[in-house]
Amino acid sequence: MDTFQQINKPVYVLEEQRLRNNLSLISEVARTGGIDIILAFKAYALWKTFPIFREYIRATTASSLSEAKLALLEFGSKAHTFSPAYTDYEIDEIAHCSSHLTFNSLSQYQRYHQRVRQANSEISLGIRINPEYSEIETDLYNPCAPGTRFGVSADKLPEILPEDIEGFHCHCHCENGSDVFQRTLTHIEDKFAKWFPQIKWINFGGGHLMTRKDYDIPLLIQILTDFKKKYPNLHVILEPGSAFGWQTGSLVSQVVDVVEDKGIKTAILNVSFTCHMPDCLEMPYWPSVRNAKVIEGRYDKSIPYLYRLGGNSCLSGDFMESWQFDHELQIGENIIFEDMLHYTTVKTNMFNGITHPSIGIVHLNGELEILKDFGYEDYRDRMD
Ligand SMILES: Cc1ncc(COP(=O)(O)O)c(C=O)c1O
Question: Which family, according to the similarity comment (predicted)?
Answer without folding.
Answer: Belongs to the Orn/Lys/Arg decarboxylase class-II family. NspC subfamily.
